[in-house]
Design a protein that fits this description.
Largest sheet: 4 strands, antiparallel
Oligomer: single chain
Number of strands: 4
Shape: elongated
Number of helices: 5
Order of helices and strands: HHHHHEEEE
Radius of gyration: 21 Å
């Protein structure tokens, strides 16, 4: 038995597979979010589409979504927070980070997602990507300092042009 890609600690067959195959519905918003991540790993794009509200379904470019799923090496999922979204709730929010590698570049998709329950079934309603702050690795070179390339010129007259 292989571990479930959603990092729940359970076997795939006991965790997300029954949801993706339509044998049962995820009981919580977080379970739906985890199964949607797993669907990307397993390239089950139909499940991604089926678990969206109508408004979100209309926004999906299926060909592009499938290409992203298939070209990416999925590295892991981290659930950062979950608000409401239990079996008795009508809506919920889940903040998560999905790490992947594509074309040799490693990236993290950080999202705050909203889910709603319609006809006793959880659906992805909308999400907002959380921007990542890039931190400079080294000290900032001032415009009037010598250029770091070693040319002897001021930075503003060399690489800073």
């Amino acid at each position: 038995m292989k571990n479930c890609p959603c990092d729940s600690g359970l076997a795939y067959e006991e965790c997300c597979e029954p949801y993706i195959k339509g044998a049962k519905n995820p009981p919580t918003a977080e379970a739906l979010m985890r199964s949607r991540y797993t669907a990307y790993v397993e390239h089950a794009i139909d499940y991604i589409v089926e678990t969206c509200t109508k408004d979100e379904k209309d926004k999906i470019d299926i060909r592009q979504t499938r290409a992203w799923s298939e070209k990416s090496k999925w590295l892991g999922l981290k659930v950062l927070s979950s608000e409401r979204g239990g079996p008795d709730d009508a809506e919920g929010k889940v903040e998560f980070q999905a790490s992947y590698e594509m074309d040799g570049l490693r990236d993290t998709h950080h999202e705050k997602a909203k889910f709603i329950k319609k006809d006793d079934r959880w659906l992805y309603d909308e999400g907002s990507v959380v921007p990542i702050t890039i931190v400079r690795a080294g000290p900032k070179v001032g415009r009037n300092e010598p250029c770091s390339c070693g040319s002897g010129k001021k930075y503003k007259h060399c690489c800073g042009k």
